[in-house]
Amino acid sequence: MMHRITVLTGEKGSGKTTLCQRILEGALQRGLDAAGVLSPARFDGDVKIGIDVLEVRTGERRALAEADDHPGVLRTHRYRFDPESVLWGAECLAAACPCDVLIVDEIGPLEVERGQGWANALDILRAGRYGLAVVVVRPGLLDAFCTSVAQPRIDTLTLPAAAQHAALIDALLAPWTPPFGAWASSR
Questions:
Q1: Which residues 6+ apart lie within 8 Å of 174 measured at CB?
Q2: DSSP readout, 87-133?
Q3: Domains in the chain, CATH or no CATH each
Q4: Helix 83-94 vs helix 120-127: angle between axes, to the nearest 10 degrees?
Q5: Mean of the pLDDT values across residues 125-150?
Q6: CB-based contacts of 149: which residues, under 8 Å, 6+ apart?
Q7: What is the per-residue pLDDT across 48-104, written as a single tens digit (0 to 9) for each?
């Protein structure tokens, strides 16, 4: 299967997960087989209190992480991860391929720096059993991610303004069309 990887990158709150959700909707409207995981935030008013994991094919959703300072087996600076939900997300990713569109939201410090979390996604991406993989990676982890995946070409999109998202989705999902505009770069 011919495949390509597109990384969505941007700072916190730039709309990476929202754009992944819109890409998923566009893929489904085109009759494509989409699989993988999304990580939508949970809010209490304007305060982000946690992150969920949503399995793309079934829509099943579980609490993934809490924004707190309580001790935990899997922690980043800000989040305490539920080990069972992390394992479930890794299992969802393992079962995702083959597919037309693979969504991995997101590869972060657990995966790239510690080999934990959804580190199996790196092997899945290297295997290439998808048409398009859309992967969310923070800017500070981009070089380490690209080195880990070791693919000859990874397209990187630094998120444009939300008004440009519709054109970006159409370009990503259009077969055999140069998919990117001025906001893209290749590694």
A1: none
A2: HHHHHHHHTT-SEEEEEEEEE-HHHHHHS-TTTHHHHHHHHT-EEEE
A3: 4-42+52-62+90-175 (3.40.50.300)
A4: 10
A5: 95
A6: 5, 122, 125, 126
A7: 999 999 999 999 999 999 999 999 999 999 999 999 999 999 999 999 999 999 999
